[in-house]
Amino acid sequence: MDVKTKPISHVALIMDGNGRWAKARGLPRHKGHEEGCKRIIEIFDAVKANHIKVMTLYAFSTENWNRPKMEIKQLFGYLDKFFKDNIATFMKDGIRVQIMGDISRLPEHTQKVVIDALEKTKDNDNYVFNIALNYGSQQEIVKATKEIALMVKENKINIEDITIDTISNHLYTANLPPIDLMIRTSGEQRLSNYLLFQLAYSEFIFTPTYWPDFTKEKFERCLQEFYKRNRRFGKIEEE
Ligand code: IPE
Ligand code: IPE
Ligand code: MG
After folding, report:
1. pTM exceeds 0.85 for this model
2. Does residue 74 line the site of ligand 1, with CB under 6 A?
3. Which CATH architecture has domain 3-136+179-228?
């Protein structure tokens, strides 16, 4: 197969480095979030241009509540604006919005715009924009475990019937294809509680670029690197 035509269905991103981007320019941290939120739709354009069906984006982790209240407020303000500004694009391009995480803790206005986007886009089926808001992968696994334990308790399934698929089906990503590629910007080389179960066989790219500087061209360079990778899934190398 021509390396450039290797299929890729699902890309997961960790948008990181907004604060450092701002600091490097002598700006307050929130300016980094403002600029960072503008990149989201641009990267989604590149996702569509490269025929990738699903983009999952880490926007706010369960651990991010440990940040100053003011920064959290500003960040959600920019995320609200992102949804409001882009709902027309989601409809025009057939993008379905999906959420990972417990949104009940988000500011009320953010919950409103997010639920509005979920409802308006629910029948779109060209692409999925899956956004992690108040998401923690360990919490997600605990939630799945409780749901499965309850099914056992209620005699709906036997313990012996629990498989990898049973667990997958209880995660926020149940309806999505496996993640082919995970990209984290800003040079940090860790997962920060992101998709611990789902990334079992994904390729990882850690780029030093801060998220606000992450352009379509840089994203496409990551795709080129992905296409060169040899995914073996435990088998031996193909000739
Ligand atoms: C990513 O940028 C956005 C969120 C985590 C919400 P950061 O805000 O983490 O930026 P740095 O890592 O401090 O530079
Ligand atoms: C991870 O980034 C969370 C998001 C990008 C939403 P952080 O910047 O919060 O991660 P740590 O604290 O550096 O691990
Ligand atoms: Mg960070």
Report:
1. yes
2. no
3. 3-Layer(aba) Sandwich (3.40)
